[in-house]
Amino acid sequence: MRRAWRIAAALLAGAVLLAGCGSGGSGSAGGGSEAQGGQGAQGSNVAVYAVTTEPMIFWDPSDGFSNEIIAMNNMYETLLRYDPSTNSFIKVLATDYKSSPDALTWTFTLRKGVKFHTGKTMTSADVKASFERTIQHGKGAAYILDPIQSIDTPDDSTVVFHLKYPAPMDLIVSSPYAAYVFDTDVLKKNGDDWFNQHHEAGTGPYMLKSWKENDALVLEKFPDYWGGWKTNQFDTVIIKPVEETSTKMQMLQAGQADVVDQLPYEQLQALQNDPNVEIVKTNSWQNLLAFFNTKKKPLDDVRVRQALSYAFPYQSVIDDVMHGMATQARGPVPAGLWGHDDNLFQYQEDLEKAKQLLDQAGVKPGLKLTLTYTSGDENERRVAELWKAELAKLGITLDIQAMPWDPQWQLAKATDPQKRQDILMMYWWPDYANPYSFLFNMFHSEQTVNFNLAYYSNPDFDKLIDDANRISATDRSQAEAKYAQAQEILVRDAPAVFIYDQSYVRPIRKSFGGYVDNPAYPNVVFFYNTYRK
Amino acid sequence: MAAYIARRLLLGLVVIWGLTVVTFAIARVAPGDPAARWVGPHATAEQIAQARVELGLDKPLYVQYARYLGQLLHGDLGVSIRTHQPVAADIRTFLPASLELTVAGMALAVILGIPLGVAAAARSGRWLDHLTRLTSIGGVSMPTFWLAMILQLVFFKQLHLLPLSGRIDTMTPLLHPVQPITGSFLLDGLLEGNWPVFKDALAHLILPAVTLAAYPLGLIVRMLRSSMIETLGEDYVRAARAAGFKERVVVYRYALKNAIAPTLTVMALTFAYSLTGTFLIESVFDWPGLGNYAAEAVITNDYPAIMGVTIVVAVMYVALNLLVDVVQALLDPRIRTGVAS
Question: Which of A200, A229, A174, A249 is nearest to A59 (CA)?
């Protein structure tokens, strides 16, 4: 018996020894982080970005339409980059461009001496081949290239786009999706599927070093980058998926991450007192909407939809759910994006008015409505709960149903409108800096239901936004006027509650310099612009 | 014995085949459109329709199943709807991480649990027994994610002893390249004599392994204690003691052999369960394992991934159960001869 006890003791000692050995080994990890606390993640030359989900879904620059834009925008480049803060374009692979007066011909002059990571020098033929391949693939956001009829290359550094109809090519070529320029020659050698085997062939400042699924994507600087390099820029960039928010927060505090894509409010509060952490807040172009099923009684009556819009607790949602990290939406086009109208009518909570409208529409207390939201989204859930409480005061019961997005969307697309939900909550963000993305996708009449989940159909509205889109390339102020008119119709018809425009709130290390959030490129950190302070 | 194993193997195959039918049916009947997930957010209706044809989802369900089974027989698990990677490659990436964690956690639980359970039984009612009861009940009832976070707070934040999360520091394999042999950083580091990788991987493994071990450790101690107490009260033990055998021989050689059978079964089941059941631990420690992958697959209705993980885990269950049954048959001749006790 004594022996047994002695064996147990020996094993315990062994375990302690093992732990001791481990702690010795972690000298570089744990202890190192402490030493680097003031400096930033890993070392001065490495930047770490902790993101919530897998950073690489699509590898093909033609097809990408997901989280990979963070990495893609560091490995690949576009002809132009849009800067919404100044409403202007940053010249990237193009140094100059002009449009014909009818906006049907767009001529881009290319930057000289740009090298691909493959070693080849970029010419107009590569630009043409890249766009043609993306169009031919027809995947992801390739539909934004629909206006392109043909592409000419009069010389090595000139690309001419001929369009089928007028379109804002300057905005289109600066899209974070479907507008990358890449070396197509490597595909001739290695096959069209080469990118999907985890390769890249861009011109960007960083190139792929290694990737492990659900682990880390490591990028290293491209020595021949056309922009050149300064000593305090990062040699290595690590983009790491970290799901757990407390882990993300601790990484940031310990200096093992320089920037984090998002954290819940409680943790942001806790970080506010950390002397090494700074919180950067920017308006995003992502907004939250609640769509009414306009094909189902009683929501087919505009008065009922208006009443429900008046019965929405806007202020309490901003204050209590979003803790000020959002602003009440004014129509479907978010603030900061051109086409947003500062004078557009905005519903405010007014239960009296709501009651009157419901009376007029003949809606009696006892009405039951079903609302679906995407399960796991705490913000959506809390918004729905607050709304439910307000509606209860009007005698309306809101039945809140959490569903994963796929079934939620599936239900919304059910063939019989009566079988669909009454109200659906969803976010939208644009494929490129264009209000048409919001207005067309969510509210233009649809043959087959896709994202117009209010099933809204108004020919006047359709015509206004289609016209605005057509002239937006040549006469943007006229286009804005038409978009404003269209949004007035929309707000009056109230096919949805325009809840809030979300803010991006990014905690970053103070030693991480040069970081600016650009809402046209959601969640993207352009690491070339950042440096170690 | 060979006939016994062959019979069990055949039965295992039938179980796995049945599981593919049920899982396929459930995954494909559940609402959600894999084609829409495949093309990514904000896709047009045409793109989704095209993807449906591309993925063969426009065919009747039984055709889809037959096609899947055909692929499966060729060792092809299909392509994940969510990650766009071949499911086999995904599993090859995540399984070693899960095995590493599960083996380490279970080893810890077994190495500590067996002597503790035996000791507690041998000294039932004494302070050691009370202490183990307290810790094992704690281990079984403590929520794993809570334990994980407490360990992180203590060992990372306060003591700076162990790393926060991940399998290895991202920079370590870049600075000290390691050739994947087994897929486990710990083993590969050891096999290649790559000490920085080995040490870093070990440091990263400790907290998740301890967290994982807590539950099975408690379970093993409690189960073994009660079956040992029962066994130690048997006549043959008294006879052995009377015959003057050393206490260690009586307890470990005669009593433990008879008392361990139920604990073995539980250990095997816990092991297989832990492969995908550890997603809370994986999530907190950011451990890129199969549990997280399976959870994501279920949430996004990624049916090829769900099928792939189910098959792999089912194979593990069948294999482990077989192993345990063989071990028990070796320990207890009544099982292999089919004579009732």
Answer: A200
